[in-house]
Amino acid sequence: LPAVIVSLVVIIDRNIYGRTPLIPSRPNETTICYITDNTVKMVTTVGLFSMVFLFNVSMFGVTVKWFVGSHFGKQHRHRDWNAVRREIITLLVLIVLLGLPWGLIFFALGPLPAPGLYAFCILSCLQGFFIFIYFVLYLKKSKDSAAAPSTATQNASIKT
């Protein structure tokens, strides 16, 4: 998708890309090859961010609907709803964790572009590590819950 956006911008006007300062208030310092027209920069950057944001929110909605729908047809036990609530909170944490770099790059278009770009790069590089930590904790929780006998099994053994 970014390649399509860049191609469209170049097809429309090749002169939109050029050397532009990384920090607009200091034009004599570090420059990068980027979009020089501020309107085009805002439309393409905010447009891409908005598309990613809408896709993530829609996938979150589909996943929440799936979690609630899979437990809605069954008996409404309080424990099941607590499990669904925990899963939804976990999804919210993952969305914030994985969406944070995009939010930072969105706000980096304002008065503090350099710190925003550094934070975006660092957090983007650490996303794989964050996902790894999530799965390690999730597997540990699954392993702990599988090792503990269920209350139904305990009640059945007590009755016999």
Automatic annotation (TrEMBL):
It holds the Pfam family 7tm_2. It comes from the Eukaryota. Its main location: membrane. The chain crosses the membrane at residues 46-68, 88-110, 116-139. The keyword Transmembrane helix applies. Keywords: Membrane, Transmembrane, Transmembrane helix. It is found in: Membrane. It is a multi-pass membrane protein. This is G-protein coupled receptors family 2 profile 2 domain-containing protein. It comes from Xenoophorus captivus.
